[in-house]
Amino acid sequence: MHIIKFLLALLLLVAALNERAEASVPGHSNDTHQQAKFSELGDLLTVEQAQGRFAWLSKCYDGLLVELWERMYESTDVVKKEEKLRQLKALWLSDTALAAGKAQYVTFANTDFTNPYQWYAGTSANEACTIMPPEYEPIALKTTVLPRSYCENRSYDHEWEWISEVTVDDFTHQSEKHAHSIVSGKVLVLRANQASKVTIKPGNKEPEFPSYVAARVWLDWNHNGQFESSEMVYRSASSGVFRFLLDVPATVPEGLTLMRVATDAGGGSDNACTRIHYGEVEDYLVTVR
Ligand SMILES: [Ca+2]
Ligand SMILES: [Ca+2]
After folding, report:
1. Which pairs from 59-65 meet CB under 8 Å and 24+ separation?
2. What spacing in Å lies between the alpha carbon of 178 and ligand 1's midpoint?
3. Which terminal residue of the chain, N or C, has fewer Cβ atoms less than 10 Å from its own Cβ?
4. Which residues, at least 6 apart from 270, have a Cβ–Cβ distance to it below 8 Å?
5. Spatial CA neighbour of 284 closest among 173, 119, 163
């Protein structure tokens, strides 16, 4: 049963990767029917973090890695634990994969592919071991896509205010309330030297009395893994829907980068890394063509 589940997860992952490949075909846009496949699990790791994930699991959950080895090889041969770990590492973190920036790592969640406790496995051997929620399982073998890691940001409180929808031209993402989420199932494609129409719909626990929230958007145009002050592309405050035109620079380096959207009824900060109070932070994978 476990093997089937894991294989299913792998298939879903392959589907997600295909979807990403499709999304990068210029002019190919069928967002509506693909919307259901959006993943909000986040857990997008860089190559270095994927290596750290393996080291952390080897330290904290080596039994689980052994179990994964047994599922993948369907073997009951007497093989030493160290050899099993070595083989897994060779499979997921081969020199070829590392050189291509495509290391693989295991991500964990509930069996329904949700992460209700917002629990993530470690990404460095130096991190202390934490206890995985008992109902969690390894649900997918992911391939690294982001070459850089970004500062974390999340809200202290997302009970009353959150982000319920973000649209960019034909791209729409509706979502529930979270402290932070990474929309990792699909890449948002922007056109160089054009203006894109963006809307941000805040969610409210009492929609008849919408809160006055500050909204900000940052885009790492220069792909350096940081949101410089010049990369804050929008800032406003309102109790309604935010609408603006996003001017995309004429030249942006190739590859994936990150767009961060934050709403905060506590006013927020111009610093994309400063933790927000009442609202949500959503990160989107973006490529400019
Ligand atoms: Ca949301
Ligand atoms: Ca930057």
Report:
1. 59/125, 59/129, 60/122, 60/129, 60/130, 61/121, 61/132, 64/138
2. 6
3. N
4. 216, 229, 232, 235
5. 173
Q: How far is the CA of 175 from the centre of ligand 1 (A)?
A: 4
Ligand with smallest separation from the Cα of 175: 1
Nearest CA among 3, 13, 106, 8 for reference residue 51: 106
Residue segments in the chain with a per-residue pLDDT below the cut of 70: 1-42, 185
State how far the Cα of 94 lies from the Cα of 105, in Å rounded to an integer: 12
Residue 7 DSSP symbol: H
Distance 232 CA to ligand 2 centre (A): 10
pTM, full prediction: 0.74
Select from 20, 38, 31 the least CA-distant residue to 176: 38
Report the pLDDT value the prediction gives residue 199, as an integer from 0 to 100. 98
Residues 160 and 156: their CA atoms lie apart, in Å, by 11
Which candidate, 44, 50, 45, 51, places its Cα nearest to that of 186?
Answer: 44
Query: What's residue 113's pLDDT?
Result: 82
Domain over 155-288 is classified CATH 2.60.120.10: no
Q: CB of 183 within 8 A of CB of 173?
A: yes
Instruction: Give the tokens for residue 192.
Output: 């160089």
Q: Domain residue spans in the chain?
A: 2-143, 155-288
Distance CA 158, CA 277 (A): 8
Taking the centre of ligand 1 as the mean of its atom positions, its distance from the CA of residue 7, in whole angstroms, is 29
Radius of gyration of the chain (CA): 20
Dihedrals φ, ψ of 132, to 5°? -70, 135
Token representation of residue 70: 């047994």
Spacing, Cα 17 to ligand 2 middle (Å): 26
**Per-residue pLDDT at 23:** 33
Q: Which ligand is nearest to the CA of 218?
A: 2
